[in-house]
Please model this.
Amino acid sequence: MINRLICIVWVIWLGSIHEVVQAQRSFVHPGITYTKGDLDRMKAMIEVQKEPYYSTFLKLKESPYSSLEAPVHHRGKQIQGGRFNATIGVDGRRAHDLALLWHLTGDEAYARKAVEFLNANSYYTNTSSRGTGPLDNGKIYLLIDAAELMRDYLGWKKEDQRRFKDMLVYPGYSHTEDLAAKYADYWDDSKNGITFYWNIYNFDVARFGNQGLFAARGMMAMAIYLDNEIMYDRAYRYLLGMKHRADDLPYPSGPAISSEEPIRTSPTIIDYKLLGRKTDISDYGYDEQLQHYIYPNGQCQESSRDQGHVLAGVHNYVAIAEMAWNQGDSLYSCLNNRLLSGLEWNYRYNLSKIQSYEDQKEAWEPTGFTKDANEVTFENGKFLQIKSRSGRWESVSISPHGRGDVSGSGGTREMALAHYAVRAGLPLEKYTWLQRYRDYMIEHYGCENWGIAPNWFYEWTGWGTLTKRLTPWMAGDPVIFSSGKRISGIHLLPGTIQAADYDYYSLSENSEGHTYHNVGVKRGNEYRPDGAVELKNIGNEYVVTQVEDGEWMNYTVKVPSVGTYTVYITYQSRTKSALSVASDQGTDTGTTSLPASKQWTEKEIGCLSLSAGACVLRLSVKEAGENLLLGKIHVRLQGEKKK
Model:
């Protein structure tokens, strides 16, 4: 209930403040699928060959799409209908994986090769709008993800980067003029005069929801890469069923007009002929919206179609939610964790067909049917019979077509599990089938790779057992705020950490209990906008103040080698205090008493035995002395000389 209220408050905030205040968002870079903290965590695990990160990394390197020998074809100015997989699909797969490898290895050969693929796809002035135009053009997502990873690479010339950016919105970006209506030709590729943004800006009102979700996925990635707040809000607000920004083009109106009699029926779905759309309701909202794609019980809008498209759509939502999370928004928790309900309902249906469990020995089937959305829950197992917002399909029963291990070793299961199990800290019973499906994947495939769908290179981001697996307390992103803005990046041991730079959670979620525990309720301060940890500026540095018994803060760190690390704290306190430090590797210093000190004093807290890799340290206050201030945490490898 709390998550739902938070989401509603966020929606209201967007609707009221963003209408009058523009260009206030400061985008995090890199910040599409990966933050700097993500990349640092991966490198820390690879360097010490920690599993399953290392074996997944080796498979990434060995993939044919990571080859430095692959030929690069100049793609020209046009993508005709049916040619998206063979151009931006496969080149996006290659550029993404190569860019990721450059960050992980430092080998500039990967960077140069990624840039070759980006440049080869930077001259488009005509990308087909025909048929499944929104889906097809949404496949630009992986190329944009690669461009985001390469944005600071000095070997990618500024003029080439500019051409790539301009190409995404050709013939130009506008939030006041509909250039698709002016330059698009939906019937003749040779006359079409627009590219990606103008083929995805209205999502897809006439087809199954996953197609509009590919458009939304491409749009959100594009917005982050281009630092375009209006474009970002266009995607985010639409998916949450909100009105368009007053300074943006409207969303499609509705409702749909469809034939009264069906044109085709089957045991699972009824098809109608689409006759057009009314304009009665502005910003009507179609099947890609969260509330219409995943129903209250977790059933998917495409459940009557086939299971492959169900999991493609649900995993698209995970990829979109991860982008939003990296930018400080929580689509993950909206509508009472509706996305998680979708994962659980559809994973239960698919996995129980091929794997039995003590509590589910037979393949699960819906327990009944209803046309009332208020009657369906995950627990009662009823199937919702409902007509799609597009007006073209009506669900009758669940389709078994493709049932089973339909996403194989691909997907975004590690990404979703990392969020709900570690970041959100939900109890296991909330993500039972997500956990089971992830474990099934590891048992049968060893890791999450890029995917299995032939020629659908864009389908999954992939490599989740390398990129998204988190340690038990790794709920937040390691950050510093000393520059006045959020800078993502892991803390290196041995080293010094400002106590005020505890891990970042999210502006749209309550950080309490995730990256810190604080007795106070005040939100934000001038040093950092998130959280309720009280901070104070002393001597041009921010320190933790108003400390109370039982409070704690988390810090994600890189441990370069196994060893014993001694932890020190600089503090002030009018009376004695007691602190401890623990790691999510299962070690702790024990509680150490600190004497009163009216001046800044450095004292040893104790020692931690740490294995190499990335982990989280937790500074806990067992007893807060009067006016206790916490300045810096110093961690030294035993035997290292004090500097």
The chain is about 35% helix and 20% strand.
